[in-house]
Amino acid sequence: MSQRIQFARTGGSDVLELVDVTPAAPGQGEVRIANKAVGLNFIDIYVRTGLYPAPAMPSGLGTEGAGVVDAVGEGVSHLTVGDRVAYAQGPLGAYAQMHTLPAAKVVRLPDAIDFETAAASMLKGLTVQYLLRQTFELKGGETILFHAAAGGVGSIACQWANALGVKLIGTVSSQAKADLAMANGAWATINYSEENVVERVRELTNGEMCDVVYDSVGKDTWETSLDCLKPRALMVSFGNASGPVEGVNIGILNKKGSLYVTRPSLNGYADTRERLEAMCEAFFAMLESGKIKIDIANRYPLAEAGKAQDALQSRKTTGSTILLP
């Protein structure tokens, strides 16, 4: 027997249950992972609340983890029992001691990267990889605005942007989070609870504004983000922490300077094994070089997944959070 977190109806964190299950044997092209650590991400809350519907109920939760290959299905040639591995994409069910998933979504973990670091950073690190190196390929010298700069994704983005020679302006909600973002390499920060974001961006850039805005907040910051862009610049909306952006008249992009907008996702970029491997190679190289360090600020036992999600949703956390099965 094994244990996993599941939910039978959508709602608050109280719908999450720790249950005993028989781990699924891997089928054709699948592997079973004995998780050593599991990542916690905002998208897990979207699934729990029904914003992103689960395929069936009751459902497992989570898509990110790291551990050891426990069993291998037929047709799998690149992984063997005992391999140290990590993963960041579905199916749902990573909040568990054992997780069975397609081998094509699993990568070998370099010896220099421990399980907790991998579980805390795979989804966030690959997200930053596609945001900064593919959605808009930053080359150095650009000025960008990154919302939630002290969170798990933001902390990695600050470090990666700094390594590229990019001026990252990060929005935060407190002085402590501003200090953290600056320590991670942000060029400047804006405390949105005390300062007008658009006015501060204008001051910091001498009226030039930003080449790109990366916005994971959603509806609450949509127009503010557009107003921080220079003409013909790019708005990257990659999350819905405050709710989804809805009812948009695309004419506003013309009105605000012939702007571009995109709504990317990890699955849209890591859509083949080859692309996933290349993205992981780039991210792992940043970890191994020490240019990016992962701050695991919060660790919870698997049974306290709901408590961990509540802390994340209330924006009380900094850095990354992991569950320990």
Automatic annotation (TrEMBL):
Lineage, top-rank taxon, reads Bacteria
- Name the Pfam families on file: ADH_N, ADH_zinc_N
Q: Does Oxidoreductase show up as a keyword for this record? A: yes
* Listed SMART domains: PKS_ER
**Which top EC class is given?**
oxidoreductase
Q: Where is the Enoyl reductase (ER) domain?
A: 11-323
Q: Cite the entry's keywords alphabetically.
A: NADP, Oxidoreductase
Tell me its EC number(s), please.
Answer: 1.6.5.5
Any GO MF annotation of the entry: quinone reductase (NADPH) activity
Q: Which reaction does it catalyse?
A: 2 a quinone + NADPH + H(+) = 2 a 1,4-benzosemiquinone + NADP(+)
What Gene Ontology terms describe where this protein resides (cellular component)? cytosol
Q: Does the keyword Zinc apply?
A: no
Matches recorded under PANTHER family: QUINONE OXIDOREDUCTASE PIG3-RELATED, QUINONE OXIDOREDUCTASE-RELATED
Write down the NCBIfam families for this protein, in alphabetical order: PRK10754.1
Give the family this protein belongs to, as stated in its UniProt record: Belongs to the zinc-containing alcohol dehydrogenase family. Quinone oxidoreductase subfamily.
State the name under which the record lists this protein: NADPH:quinone reductase
Provide the species name: Halovibrio variabilis
The gene from which this protein is expressed is: qor
